[in-house]
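Below is how a single chain appears once it has passed through the pipeline. First comes the sequence as given, then the structure the pipeline wrote out for it. We keep one example in the README because the format questions we get most often are answered faster by looking than by reading.
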Amino acid sequence: MNEDWMGLLQSAVARSTMTEVAEKLGYSVATVCLVLNGKYGGKSDKVAKKVMEVFAVVSCPFLQTDITSKECIGFGNCKAPTHNPNKMQHWRFCQRCPHKQET
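Resulting structure:
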């Protein structure tokens, strides 16, 4: 995994607090602190993946706005929303979008 996630994590903490960032990620403040200081004892790949999901931004060509990677992945990989024509149009667009990532 690329190292962009560490920059995203550092920026998120700088804009907010370590407590708020930890809550958004679903990790403890201690874990976030250890990761930021390079002292995390375990593998950081799961933390990195979560940071990318929560804080990475994708420019959605359908919505013409920025959304989080988590929102992009969630909508692009959900079941077809056959109950709503507008959501169905968005979902179909997602199926051929260059930003689409499989879960």
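Strands lie at 57-60, 65-68.

See the next section for the split statistics.
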